[in-house]
Amino acid sequence: MTATQIARTTSPAVLDRIASVTLSSVVLPLSDPISDAKVLTGRQRAMTEVVFLFAEIRTEGGHEGIGFGYSKRAGGPAQFAHAKEIAADLIGEDPSDIGRLWTKLVWAGASVGRSGASTQAIAAMDIALWDLKAKRAGLPLAKLLGAHRDSVPCYNTSGGFLHESIDQVLENATRTIGEGIGGIKIKVGQPDWAEDLRRVRAVREHIGDRMPLMVDANQQWDRPTAMRVSRALEEFDLVWIEEPLDAYDAEGHAQLARSLDTAIATGEMLTSVPEHYELIRAGSVDIIQPDAPRIGGITQFLKLAALAEHSNLQMAPHFAMEIHLHLAAAYPHGAWVEHFDWLYPLFNERLEIRDGRMLLSDRPGLGVTLTEQARAWTVDTVRIDAAR
Ligand SMILES: [Mg+2]
């Protein structure tokens, strides 16, 4: 044992130690095969399931935290395998020192990089540590971080996909508004963009001029098409146009952002803070859309939020509203949270929505617990309780 290790084991500042990490791979089936523009352009198959990586961390002092990441179409087994390989590095560590533990885990897997599946494996554990810290403090995560608001405007994505007819999308929109959700997002980016415009017009006429409406092209336009269609979309008073271009085309997004009145939003596909930093530096976005499980967890999200705040960006985090409600509430500038009903079967708790906004609850931490159904959908699990 080195002198540093002895000092750490004897320091009165060490409040608790991580005793075990339980990792679970959970396959959530979707009721309908889901199609966005990536399916219509032939780049991806329709999505039939989402694979979640849950991390449950317990301490010697009896505290617990839960976190999760996810993958769509591919990557679930890779995230699980990587987490399983590095989780032992958490055993015996003080769970409060989250930044140091993130760095330790990323160095443990440094040869496979600081983005993508490797960092996403860390995200589940990082989020569990934040959940644990907030629960120990008896606070909702947003309050631990410091909330700027106790509710966040929310919009619905799960009713606007391209596998559904326009009549079905209109029916979904009516239901969404009836549920108190504050905005509607529909998918565009089809090979025939005239059909996109027809759907947007139909939805705008159906929901009226006042209801916030967004569109999402899922990266399927090239630069000239994005410019032409986005200009045609200006008349619909959209809150934003999402992913008009390839996720890594920072300059192309910047050209659009400079040329249009409608806000440009992107960022969900990026898998690290440095990748997001490229968008911010290039002036690519008005509204940044980070995804905490994709960029390495809450520790990384907070670094990105500081950069975005400094650049006066609005924020609309992607997916995983159970996590992002807290992070959007803690963001100083304007923020939205994305509503998906897909994850409802996984959690015992339901987020409250009223008057267009999603409300923070007084439950400590993330405020979620896994259902028996989620346990039943577990396809692989491992409990790690010994340091390597
Ligand atoms: Mg999107």
UniProtKB/TrEMBL annotation:
GO molecular-function term, one example from the UniProt record: L-altrarate dehydratase activity
Increases basicity of active site His, annotated site positions: D291
Keyword tags: Magnesium, Metal-binding
Residue numbers binding Mg(2+): D216, E242, E268
Cofactor annotation: Mg(2+)
SUPFAM superfamilies attached to this UniProt entry: Enolase C-terminal domain-like (SSF51604), Enolase N-terminal domain-like (SSF54826)
Membrane as UniProt keyword: no
Entry superkingdom: Bacteria
Gene3D superfamilies listed in its UniProt record: Enolase-like C-terminal domain, Enolase-like, N-terminal domain
Annotated active site: K187, H318
Location of the Mandelate racemase/muconate lactonizing enzyme C-terminal domain: 166-263
Any matching Pfam family: MR_MLE_C
Cofactor mode of binding and number, as noted: Binds 1 Mg(2+) ion per subunit.
PANTHER family registered for this protein in UniProt: ENOLASE SUPERFAMILY, MANDELATE RACEMASE, MITOCHONDRIAL ENOLASE SUPERFAMILY MEMBER 1
NCBIfam families: TalGalacDh
Protein name in the entry: L-alanine-DL-glutamate epimerase
